[in-house]
Design a protein that fits this description.
It is a single chain. About 45% of the residues lie in helices and about 15% in strands. With about 325 residues, it is of the alpha+beta class. The strands form three sheets. Strands 1-2-6-3 form a four-stranded antiparallel beta sheet, with helices on both faces. A two-stranded antiparallel ribbon has the order 4-5. Strands 7-8 form a two-stranded parallel sheet. It is globular, with a radius of gyration of 21 Å. It binds iron/sulfur cluster (2 copies). The site of one iron/sulfur cluster has 12 residues, from helix 8 and helix 12. The site of one iron/sulfur cluster has 14 residues, from helix 7.
Length: about 325
């Protein structure tokens, strides 16, 4: 048995905790945690996990940090670009971990951090395994008011994914005892459609309609405009030329997100909290206000509370859809 295998393998076939941590971090992720398949917190995921990889014994949760200043910049394409790049880093690191483990006879699969997903399955979730419960059980963070998983160091500014492997680990991680969410409500203040309620309510449909305008089901609206418009003039009534070019950009370079302001403003995590606590007014002025004031088109359902919220900000141009044709 060589040194690397000694670092990793115990005589009974379980994997050494420290050796496995080191291997994952050396592959390029920023944090890692391990969860046994039978953890009650993964009960709702278990059938799907076993469909994806029937030999699963353990789940490895992984996270890679985003660049904070890209996440905060009013030039939101910088945030989208960083997310796509970090997702690529995650996929490459995941594959590298499994290649290294494979040399010692460990089998497994790596999951997709976001896209692609398994979409054409009637009545089933598009993402086979939900990453948020895995990340929470692996001790990589807890859900904040914004519904994002907040890492104790990176706050909201990270991307996470998971591996399914056929071995047990000598010990497993646990959920964090303290939620990094500071209950500051800055995410609610920065949300242009009022999707985040200070009372914990979350209007997922309002977020989907706006932030994910060029992602997933909203694509059908663009296809509908292409197919049903009798001429270019009619098409331009529904999609301006900059919106059409933006769609091209999304298809060519990965999806644009319309805001992700909740991610940009969040002061949770050691990287941001100190700056926020040192001078809250300066933090609001320098980090939050530029995103609140950012000129942008906001996509809403006509007559919804999201429309009223978006129209209350004079810097936003509001574009309404009926529920039937979004
Ligand atoms: S992504 Fe944008 S729309 Fe969605 S909850 Fe965050 S701030 Fe609101
Ligand atoms: S912005 Fe504040 S309230 Fe919102 S998730 Fe982050 S820490 Fe929690």
């Amino acid at each position: 048995m060589d040194k690397k295998q000694e670092d990793l393998d115990l005589p009974d076939g379980t994997l050494r905790y420290e050796g496995l941590c080191r291997l994952c971090l050396e592959a390029g992720v920023d944090d890692v945690g391990f969860v046994e398949l039978d953890r009650p917190g993964l009960e709702a995921q278990k059938d799907m996990i076993l469909q994806v990889f029937p030999k699963t014994r353990s789940v490895i949760g992984l996270t890679v940090a985003l660049n904070v200043d890209n996440a905060r910049s009013p030039a939101r394409y910088l945030n989208a670009m960083d997310i796509h790049l970090v997702e690529d880093v995650m996929k490459k690191a995941s594959r590298s971990i499994l290649r290294s483990l494979g040399r010692f006879g460990v089998r497994g699969v790596y999951l997709s951090p976001a896209f692609p997903m398994d979409i054409p399955r009637p009545g089933q979730k598009a993402l086979n395994v939900s990453h948020k419960p895995v990340a929470e059980e692996a001790g990589l963070g807890l859900m904040g008011l914004s519904r994002m998983i907040l890492h104790p160091q990176f706050g909201a500014a990270h991307c996470f994914s998971a591996l399914l492997i056929d071995r047990q680990v000598e010990k497993y991680d646990r959920k964090l005892e303290q939620n990094p969410c500071l209950q500051c409500n800055l995410c609610a203040a920065a949300c242009p459609v009022g999707a985040i309620g200070k009372d914990g309510r979350f209007e997922g449909f309002a977020c989907l309609t706006h932030n994910y305008r060029e992602v997933t089901i909203n694509f059908l609206d663009w296809v509908d405009a292409l197919v049903s418009s009798p001429d270019m003039e009619a098409y331009r009534q529904r999609f301006s030329d900059p919106e059409t070019i933006s769609w091209w950009q999304s298809l060519a370079y990965g999806p644009n997100y319309q805001c992700n302001h909740c991610l940009g403003v969040c002061p949770a995590g050691d990287r941001n909290r100190i700056e926020y606590e040192e001078d809250r007014q300066a933090y609001f002025r320098n980090v939050v206000k530029p995103l609140i004031d950012r000129p942008q088109t906001v996509y809403v359902i006509a007559g919804s509370p999201a429309e009223a919220k978006a129209r209350a900000n004079p810097n936003k141009e509001v574009k309404c859809f009926s529920k039937a044709r979004r």
